[in-house]
Amino acid sequence: MESIVLEQATAEADALLPRRRTTVCRIIGQPDRPALWEDWRWQMRHRLTKPEQLARLLELTPAERRGLEMSHGRFAVAVTPYFASLIDPDDPDCPIRRQVVPREEELLVSRGDMIDPCGEEHDSVVPGLVHRYPDRVLLLAIDTCASYCRYCTRSRLVNRDRLEPLSRRLDRILDYLRSHPEVRDVLVSGGDPLLMSDERLDMLLGAVRSVPHVELLRVGSRVPSVLPQRITSALAAVLRRHRVWLSLHFSHPDELTPEAAEACELLADSGIPLGSQTVLLRGVNDDPAVLKRLFHGLIRMRVRPYYLFQADPVIGTGHLRTSVGRGIEIMRALRGHTSGYAVPAFVIDAPDGGGKIPLPAETVVEHSGDTWRLRNWAGGVYTYVDPPEAG
């Protein structure tokens, strides 16, 4: 019965999307033509960035109106036409809407809020290169995203012109990498590196790959969920050529559209390993049933759920964050009730640069000598005894 209800809801949503697309095109003053809609550069040129555009698209709440009025000069607002077409205009609690439309709560500073919650500035060794863990670095390629998430960890940098163009920084980045043979893993992020042209991205990935001791090259991107039109055969060829792993970002099952599935299928068929990172968000996905639908959908798209992040304490995001306890409850409800491939690790990126800290399941009941008392997913307690030779 549950699957039938979900299928009906999906069919109804699919029927609404063409009408919403037409509405979005009318608001941005563009013709509703498939050839234009499928052009990712057209999507970027016509992002919804003005309060009056969102006011025409949505029945704005007073909190959203004030949030849009006060967003000028603060964290930017931008939504691709494609992603905007997924928003329910009549539901202020629409999970897509909550992620991209500012609310007045963003002006509130909660206890523990931080400008740079992950301490990246402290661990920045050259501009745009963060070296925290012994064997891996974070390379910030650009400061632009297709759509701006209201919970963005790097809202201090994104769309603020604080990051110099990569061409001015790349030589210093490469010099650092070459002089640090312990670095075997490079994560290219931003902003969103997949918004670079194929040629520029090819150049960057090739330059990093030229460092002999770099074994693993990863790219972090939200593009398949907010701008799937960007995923082309030419882009997939660039990623395949440099043996890239993709770390994607999906937050809610409503993002698993046919367009997103087609993009991920193209990437997977090109031999590119796909993982997904999800941020736990209040009113968006803080429910075991919602996350199970998301993770099952990702698995069907050959995307492995990798991390479930406790939302970082970015200034003005208290209304979007859950408690850590809620995250632990959700993980307890997932483990054992679905396949292990569909269960990510629940982690906190510790404030002030402490790095990712996994929150393990409460499975060890007691440990004495060589005997372990363990609790399984159903609450049963079992005994495991170490072999004598294990030491």
Describe this structure in words.
With 391 residues, the chain is of the alpha/beta class. It has three domains: 19-107, no CATH class; 124-358, TIM Barrel; 362-391, no CATH class. It is 35% helix and 17% strand. It is built from 14 helices and 13 strands. It has helices spanning 2-28, 34-37, 40-45, 51-57, 62-70, 81-84, 95-100, 166-178, 198-209, 223-226, 233-241, 258-269, 288-300, 324-334, and strands spanning 124-126, 129-131, 136-140, 185-189, 216-221, 244-249, 274-280, 304-310, 345-350, 355-358, 364-368, 371-375, 381-385. It has a ten-stranded mixed sheet. A three-stranded antiparallel sheet has the order 11-12-13, with no helix packed on it. α9 (198-209) links the parallel β4 and β5 (216-221). α9 (198-209) runs parallel beside α11. It is globular, with a radius of gyration of 22 Å. The mean pLDDT is 93.
Could you outline the blueprint of secondary structure elements for this entry?
Elements: H1 2-28, H2 34-37, H3 40-45, H4 51-57, H5 62-70, H6 81-84, H7 95-100, E1 124-126, E2 129-131, E3 136-140, H8 166-178, E4 185-189, H9 198-209, E5 216-221, H10 223-226, H11 233-241, E6 244-249, H12 258-269, E7 274-280, H13 288-300, E8 304-310, H14 324-334, E9 345-350, E10 355-358, E11 364-368, E12 371-375, E13 381-385
Parallel strand pairs: 3-4, 4-5, 5-6, 6-7, 7-8, 8-9
Antiparallel strand pairs: 1-2, 2-3, 9-10, 11-12, 12-13
Helix pairs in contact: 9-11
